[in-house]
Design brief:
21% strand; globular; 520 residues; 14 helices; alpha+beta; single chain; eight-stranded antiparallel sheet; four-stranded antiparallel sheet
Length: 520
């Protein structure tokens, strides 16, 4: 686990548990309760409800995603009210900074526990509603601040990072690692990404637009970081199929057909869908894929133990892998014949283990051959086979743009970099009579304004990544995957034979694990 991840986890534990517990320890003593209860997360809120004589179902309500946080803040506010903290600013301090305010209440000698609110004279319904509304507003504002500037919860929706990260791994993503990106659409519903739940429609307004700005962070994106980012090509989407690639549909069916069948909407950068991939190329790097192996600046890149790809297994007569072995090692059988042997999708470390089994003579990646532009059935970036006859396993070399880097504009470079120049960096770019015009002026070179990155999934034959849609601009970076706080199996949305085997139930061995430890 890297220093930034360790620092984040320690900081979260310190502010979320250690500091509040110090104050609650003294507050419980003042209330005549065993002080040790204050040191046990969740249990302490149960006893707060007993002390305040509030309904016990509030305790269970804390477990509801998003809404549960509001109930926890509500319990805190009811508890401090028993210490006479009933003013607006006092409740605001409870919601925004309980880690400090609890210490203040617990250790100063003038604050004492008094009768619970339930024993006090009855309050009017309007006042009770106002108190709960205040608590909800405080909780939402606090959650928005945390989500915007510090950490955000994210769930792995698909298998593109398997077997390093699994579908239904719930992560915390650190915004501080690379610096928090300020909202580009400040007018938006809190705690919602781009679509209003249940009823649909945009969760944000275009009435106020702000340029890309990022606060200072622990550092910049490093090679091999697992990064959450906004999908670059998701600026235009089909309203009824928001997760599908609009540009791929247009290429396949034609623009008129797509526009006739779907409502087309556009999205700002920070409201595009989120993806999670591994950064394989940094600004200025030259990335190439040779027979499924990534080379960076001519040097073979790091291969991770749980990285998945199809392998070709050559073995003697009668060799087979038992069902128990394939289930235990998450091996997906793809087929076999005498010429190529057995083809199976598996992790790198599993392939190394299979290569040592009795009867096995060779295990090697089973990839699309160089120059085969029809093998995968999906064209790769920049979708120009005349200049770039590449595929997902034999790709490049490709130069990743770096801020301040200048390129010559040619028919080859235009195919590669036009979207970055025109869409990401917001220039008017045209080609007339073989000449390039940039913002109305003829140009033969271009200097990039932003850094770009090359992102790839660890599940190399089941990942929609930079090989298919190109570079990730720096303003699309959301944060760094930090640690898994919950993980469970279930039914995968992908029911194809290529779907990763998902065991039902909780994955206890993954809970509260740093992402760095899951890579090993």
């Amino acid at each position: 686990m890297e220093l930034s991840q360790i620092s984040l986890i320690i900081g979260l534990l310190f502010f979320a548990f250690v500091l509040p517990a110090m104050g609650l320890y003294k507050m419980f003593q003042k209330a005549g309760m065993p002080a040790w209860i204050a040191l046990v997360p969740v249990l302490n809120t149960w006893y707060m409800l007993k002390l305040t004589q509030k309904p016990k179902w509030w305790f269970v309500a804390q477990l509801i995603p998003v809404a549960g946080y509001l109930f926890t803040i509500g319990i805190y506010i009811e508890f401090v009210r028993c210490f006479g903290k009933i003013k607006f600013y006092q409740q605001a301090l409870t919601a925004f900074a309980p880690f400090l305010y609890f210490i203040y209440i617990g250790f100063n000698k003038k604050d004492h526990f008094s009768q619970p609110v339930a024993s006090a004279p009855p309050q009017g319904a309007r006042k009770i509603i106002k108190e709960w509304a205040d608590a909800a507003i405080f909780a939402v504002v606090a959650a928005v601040i945390i989500r915007t500037f510090f950490i955000e919860a994210y769930v792995i929706p698909s298998g593109s990072m398997e077997g390093t990260l699994l579908t239904n791994d719930y992560l915390f993503v650190s915004k501080m690692s690379y610096g928090a990106r300020l909202p580009m659409r400040p007018l938006q519903l809190p705690l919602v990404h781009n679509t209003i739940p249940l009823i649909g429609g945009n969760s944000y307004s275009d009435a106020i637009k702000t340029p890309y700005q990022r606060l200072p962070g622990f550092g910049k994106v490093q090679r091999y970081d697992i990064v959450v980012f906004n999908v670059p090509h998701n600026d235009t989407v089909m309203a009824d199929k928001p997760s599908n690639d609009y540009y791929a549909f247009v290429k396949r069916f034609g623009r008129a057909a797509v526009w006739n069948q779907s409502k087309i909407i556009t999205r700002p950068v920070d409201k595009k869908e989120n993806f999670i991939k591994r950064c394989m190329g940094l600004p200025g790097d030259k990335v190439e894929i040779r027979d499924g192996i990534v080379y960076i600046n001519g040097i073979k890149g790091k291969i991770f133990p749980h990285q998945r790809i199809d392998y070709q297994i050559q073995a003697g007569p009668g060799f087979s892998l038992s069902p128990d072995y394939t289930d235990e090692h998450h091996i997906i059988y793809k087929g076999s014949n005498p010429q190529i042997g057995t083809v199976a999708e598996m992790e790198y470390e599993t392939a190394m283990e299979v290569s040592k089994l009795p009867g096995v003579t060779d295990v090697r990646p089973f990839v699309e051959s160089k120059g085969d532009i029809k093998g995968s059935g999906q064209s790769v970036f920049p979708q120009n086979t005349n200049f770039f006859p590449w595929n997902q396993d034999n790709y490049g070399p490709i130069l990743i743009p770096r801020k301040g880097m200048t390129i010559s504009l040619s028919s080859r470079n235009i195919a590669m970099y036009q979207r970055a120049i025109q869409v990401y960096e917001k220039n008017k770019f045209e080609v007339k009579d073989g000449k390039c015009f940039l913002n109305g002026k003829e140009a033969n070179q271009y200097t990039f304004k932003m850094d770009y990155y090359w992102m790839m999934g660890d599940n190399r034959h089941n990942s929609e990544d930079s090989r298919f849609w190109g570079f990730v601009p720096e303003d699309h970076i959301v944060g760094k995957a930090s640690f898994v706080w919950l993980s469970h199996g279930g039914n995968s949305d992908d029911e194809s034979p290529d779907a990763y085997t998902i065991q039902p139930g909780m994955r206890w061995n993954r809970i509260l694990r740093g992402v760095g430890t899951l890579e090993k």
